[in-house]
Structures are given as C-alpha cells and as structure tokens.
Queue: 3 jobs
Job 1
Amino acid sequence: MYNSEAPLSKSRVRVGLVGTGYAAKLRAEALLHDERLHLVAIVGHTPEKTAAFAKEFQTEVMSSWQQMVEREDVDLVVISTVNRDHGKIARAALVSGKHVVVEYPLSVDLKEAKELIALAKAQNKLLHVEHIELLGGLHQALKQHLAKIGDLFYVRYSTINPQHPAPRKWTYHHELFGFPLIGALSRLHRLTNLFGKVLTVNCHQRYWETEAEYYQTCFCMTQLCFESGLLAQVIYGKGETLWQSERKFEVHGEKGGLVFDGDTGLLVQPGETTPIEVGTRRGLFAKDTSMVLDHLFDGTPLYVTATESLYALKVADAARRAAQTGLTIFLTEEQ
C-alpha cells in the first residue's frame, strides 16, 4: 500500500470488480452500502452467473478485465477472482493508473509480487492486499492476551476441512489456486504479523488426485523457526482423504497458554483456566472496504501494508521450495 500525494477529492470512487464468487459477492455488498462508492462494472468467468450477479447489484457486465482496467470512468479495480490471475490484473490496472484492492495473495509468484509493489510506488497508486484475518475476533483476542503467557516457545495452527466429495472447483486446481500455503496465505500472515521475522522453513505436502489439473485432497504441514526462537507448526488440509474437521490455534508460553478451538478461546495459567470471548468473523469485508475508502479520502492509515503481505508470501514461497526439495530453507534479507 502506498499513499497518494493527496486524498481523493471526488465525491465517489468508481469501482470495477473482477470476480463473481464468494469473496466478490461480499465485496459487492460492501460497495453497495458505502455512499462513497459506485460499482461501475463487473467481469466474471461464466456469462450466466455474471449476468445474474450484475442484475443483483445493478451494474454493467463487461466481457474482459482487460477492457475494464482501461475504462476512464473506473478509479479503483477490486480483484476477487482466481489466485492465478491476481498479479496480471493488478499489473494492468496499475499501468492504467487505477488504484487496486486485491484479495490475498497479491500474486502466486513472489518475483511478480515484488514488481507490483514497486510499480504501485512508481505510479503513486494504492495497492491494498486484503488480509481480513487480522481484523477478526481470533486475531484480536490473540493480540490482547499474548503478553499474559510469558516468553513464547511454540505455536500450532491447524485448519483441516474434510469434503466428501471434494468439489471440482478452482480452489482444488493446482494452477488456479497455487501452492497451498500461497493460496491460503492468511495462515502464515497471521503468524508473521504476530511473531515477526522467520529464520528457517521446513515443509512437507501431499496431493491425492485422479487427474492432472484438479486434486481431491491436499495436506500440507510446515514448520517455521522465528528469529525469536519461537517454533511454529502450520497444518493446512482439505478434501476427501481427511475425516475430522479442525480449526485450532495454540500458543504456548512459559507462564501459560492460549487455546482457540473453533470459536472458543481459553487462557490457561497455573491453577486456573479462563474463557476468552472471540469476536465475530462477520462483516470483515465491509470493514476492510470502509478502511480503504477512509484511506483514499482522508489519508487514514490502513491496517496492513502490501509489504507486510509480501513478507508472508516470501515465507510461503520458502515453504513451497522446502516441500519440493526436502531441504530446510533459510530466509535472508537478500532472498
């Protein structure tokens, strides 16, 4: 994210939206409910679905994102489509002089992501990568209670989603989704936001598949050693070969522990266990959208920068290389 020299003076920001899926719908709903925004046009993959989407949100259908980013009546391009296309759409929008909001990851390619941040700076345009996991109740509760458990030494973060049968959709497609921890970048970004720089990365992963492009299950496990000495395990799995759903985050310190299981939180200390209230995950796309508008109009700082997202992507790319090679990857500033 880079500040423009002066906040916008227009009464409304004119938006082009790429995508018609779950995130795109939540984003469109947020756009409709903010008077500072006007949804000019929508681009989608499926003509019938795109037409229905456009009718619901009373906007124009365009045949390609290439045409949309060149429109003079579009100030901001919101990218809510398959992960593979994030980088090239963001590049075209920035080259065309548009502000950009993109759902994570900024790109499935680390080199391209670095280039996009440099391009946004050169163009003096906003490049905001959505990371609503930082705005949710779990993350806020973690930040609030971490100091109570002393020096941290171990974290385990597991999200496992059995699906029987697995859907044949882009989130189960190698190229469209990307390496699991790049496609699901929030899993690592939550950790780098809380715990800082990573020293080493190990990773193992496996796919179950009956065709080349789509898989039925993926299971990925990475181990991070932070510069502080903290060890973290991140487990991400989805699909048919998994049998028990899990959404669990544990933090272990020398004076206690934090355990979040689903929407339930506990602070465990010597002699007592205290429930922790975990706020809702609803309304976060609307909150993200509102903060983007506050930034564009008033210069209000955003809750995350593209550079912070890039660092999480650097860690995810190291996990990808560790999984491919079986080697420990050392992260340095030069990489």
Job 2
Amino acid sequence: MAQAAAVAKPPAPPRRRRASATPRRLPYLLIAPAALLMLGFIAYPVVSVFYYSLQEYNPTKPWRNGFTGLDNFVHAFTEDPLFWDTLVFSAKWVVVEVGLQLLFGLALALIVNQTFAGRALGRALVFSPWAVSGVLTSAIWVLLYNSQTGITRYLADVGIGSYGTSWLSDTSTVFPAAIVADLWRGVPFFAILILADLQSVSKDLYEAAEVDGAGRIKQFWHITLPHLKDAIVLSTLLRAVWEFNNVDLLYTLTGGGPAGVTTTLPLYIANTSVDAHNFGYASALTTVAFVILLFCSIVYLRLSKFGGEDK
C-alpha cells in the first residue's frame, strides 16, 4: 500500500477555463443599437446633402432634375450675390453676438460667484433665459418691440422717439434690436460654463497673490483668466457654431428683413429649400457652410492651443 501510494501520480492541476470573449464584447453590444440609430440619423442626412449638392433637384420641376456636377457651387461663388451678402452678415452676426455674450457672461459669472444675500435666487434669474426656446424668445421680443404696446410706445410717452416706430422694420435699428434679443438668451450660456469653472479655482492662489501684493486686476489677469482659458475657448467655439446656424430667432423675429438685411446664410438656405424648393442648390450652400465651419473651427482650436499648457 505504501509503495503504491509512493508511486501514485499527483493529481493533475485543474484546467484553466478559457476566458470567454462575451464579457469583453458586452458593452459594445449594449451600445450598438444606440450607435446604429445615431449613425443612421447623422450619417444618412450628411451623405444625402453631399449627394444632392451635385444634383439639380426641384420637386416642382422634375423634368430638370439630374446630375449637374459642380454647377451649383460655381453659381454660388460667381453668380449669386445673395450668397456673399448673407455670408458677410453671418460673419458679422457671429462676431458681434459671441463677443458681447462672452463679455457679459464673464461679468455675470464673476458677480454671481461672490457671496451675497440671495445669491441662489440671483443665479436662478441669471440662468433662466437659457431655458427658453428660440421661438419663444423671439415671440417675447416681438411683443416688446411692438410699436403699439412695446418699448417704443413708452419711450415716446417720455419724449424719446415717436409713436408708431418699429425697430424691427427699420434697417438702421433692426440689427441692434436683434442683437439685444439674442443677448438675453445667449449670455446665460457663457455665465453657466464660466461659473462652473470658477468654482474649481483654488482660494489659496488668491490668498498667496494678496500676500505678494497683487490687486484685483492682477489676480484676474494672472489667475482667473488662465484658469478659464479652456472653458472660454470651448464655449466661444460652440456658441459661434450655434450663432452661425441661428435660424429660429431671426426667422421669427425679422424673417430675414427688412429688405433682407438680417438674412444669414442658414436662413437663406432654409428659404431656398423650403420656399423655392431648390433642394439641390440649398444642399450645395449647406456643404459650403459645413466646410467654412470646419475650417474656422480647426484654425481657431489651433491658434488658441485648446487643451494645451501655456508656456
């Protein structure tokens, strides 16, 4: 028995189970339906726009539909003065709006970041316009600019201006009026993002700066602004893209008028496709707008060194 036990072979080690690949693939399988839906809702419209930009496509004139190559783009750059007018106004609209929204948003964020009585209520009032849709915002300001019941009537009562004046129908006042209406809605966006980043600034930095004799202006310039750099770059880029594509507010507020002076490129695209049913040419204009936004975004991120460390 002892000899048999001595020569007995030791038990074989347990076999290692082969790791199943299913747990590793499970997260991808779970997000696959949502990813496919997003791909379908995003990729298909983008591809179709590029396709129709090379076509003459008007449902009301089917006998003229067909492949036209680059004719739509040639027409836009060489024969359509409205394209250049709307592109210039779009650039003007974006620069003025984003610049003013950034300045006022930064100022509001610095104010509500301080400690004072009723700060929670103040923050709620500052951020509330951002929850209002573009169409509702324009409806509110249409009532405010109404010549019979709006601001101009009350100003006329105190001797400023004349009765019956409509700022939205005058080419000299419609742009500032539209700017103010969109500022009311857009400033809270910057205030929210900047305030969120301000909360992460260490108080020790300001205390050390005070010990070194730095005043409020130097603290803002050398501590606050560098810390807010990425937040400002990201928020201005996002807001610039949104303002460039702004259709709802201007369409409801002015309709692109008077005399087309407030028509942006996206609004011109909407009128070309919806009103004129010229979907081929509208698709070409959309492609041009996409390329412009992509190029400007890349250049802006490169110049601002977004995400990098300042040397």
Job 3
Amino acid sequence: MIDRFGGPDELHLAEVSAPVVGPTDVMIAVRSAGLGSWDKDERAGGFAEEYAAPPSFPYVLGWDGAGDVVEVGSEVERFSPGDVVYAASTAAPRGGFYAELAVVDQEHVALVPDGIPVEQAGAMAWDSLTAMSGLETLALHPDETLLVFGASGGIGHFAVQLARRWGVRVIAVASGGDGVALCRRLGATLTIDGRRENITDAVTEFAPEGVDAVLLTAGGPAGDEVLSLLTPDGRAASPHGVDPVPGGGATVPVRFYSGDRSRAGFDRLAKLIANGDYETALADRFPFSEAVNAHHALAGHYAGKMALIPGIPGADAPS
C-alpha cells in the first residue's frame, strides 16, 4: 500500500481492515495480482484527478487479479465460495489486488477459463479485454491484414493471439529481441523489431498494397508513421490512455476506445480463449514483499506482463 503519492519506495507492507462486501460484490482471496503499466502513474498520483472523490489513504493498488471466492454478497447468484475467478477492477475507491483480499462487483468478475493457470489469469483481465475491444472496434474480417504496434506489450501480445481467432494476418511490431521472439511464438505472421528494423520497408515488402487495420497500443513518431501504411479505406484504433496520444498530424482518423470489462465482455473473451491456446506471457513474478522492485521493473523494458504472487518464496504477509 501507499500512504501518499510518490515513487516506488512509497510502497510498503502493512495491515488494514478487510474490504466490506456489498450486496453485488465478490470477495476474492488473491493468488495473483497483475502489474499494470499504468500502476506507476496511479502510484505517483496521476489518476487522482480522474476520480469523483479524493483518494483515501492508505491506498492499495492493483486493477487485475485472480484467486478464490471466499464470500459473496446477498444478491450474487453467479458465484459461490470456492470458485476460481479473475477480475478487472479499479483500485479506487475500495482498494485493489495488491492485498490478501479484494472486493469487486460481480459485473467485473468471471470464472478463470479452462487451461489458464491462476498466476497468468491474475494479469490477464484488463489487457485482454482491452485488446479484444480494439479488434472489435476495427471490425476485422478474415484474410485482412492487421498491424499491431507495441505487439510485445501487455495489450499487444494479447491482441496478436486474439487476432488469430479472427483469421487475419498479423504484422507484429515488437520491441527488442525478447519481444520479437514472443510475438513469433504467439503466431504473428510477420514480426518486426521496431528498435532495429525499418518498419515501413518491412511492411511494404510484406503488404505492398497496404494494411487493412492498425491497432496502436503505444504512441510516438513510429506509431504515427505506420498509419501511412494503411489502405485508402483502412482503419486505426487505440485504447484511451496511451501516451503519447497516437495519431498526431496523421490524415487517418484514429478511433479511441475503452476496454469492455462488463459481464458480456468477459463472456465474449471466454469464447475466443476457448478456440485455441492462450497465455499471459509473464516476464517476471514478484512476491508481495518485493513490490518496490516490481514497480522499478515497470519503468524498464519487458515483454508481456508481470505479476505479484503472494505465495512464491520470499513473500512476506501482504496487506
């Protein structure tokens, strides 16, 4: 938890009261908590102005998590104690998943799909739902060509996997050798190292008539450049919150969207996941006692996702 906004060293272990379960809530005993790329911004206070009420300290971070249902509200019929679930929540105002117990409204909870390890499920919800919503926004058709910019990141590596379910050709613009290897393993048709290769040349050689759609999960000049590779009727989309905001100065409009974390969104994701192998590529796992190190790692380079796992060796009792 944190007692004030600031750098990674503000994170510390402490005890607080368990969150209160409301009529439509599910209480989860956390077995895995996702580390979101946005966590460092929230920790520093960047999200505070977006909340309807000022943040309450001590503040427990964590928007993704998975574990065992231990209690349900009086109006909950979909879940029972003992169910293994994952969820997409927000840390404010009730606290997030960097804790032994987390409470989430049932609308944003789902059973962990068959074949998905709980450790992976804890870091899967938000980015998977956001990737799926992006592909839906682009209205992809089989045999089209999709370029995923930032394909080795959290949203991006899920988008590569989900796009295969749409039957599209995927050009993955990844970052570094580890990112390239990850996207190749996940089934990208063409993988480009955005750090070392000329993206325009590589894409033009593969798709000389242009690409049908672009999903921008990262911003910057290179991201804006790939918009010029679209066909005349091509589409581009980017989730809200990407910084810098994609599309500056581009002639192609970028459709901005939010991930659908509703029950219906989880249901659609479950159907897609059931159609083949699906994974959360965990670049690293940290015990709760190493949350400070985890947040330092968030500021560096990594491919895929990272997670806090309270049960791995070296973990102290979490808050």
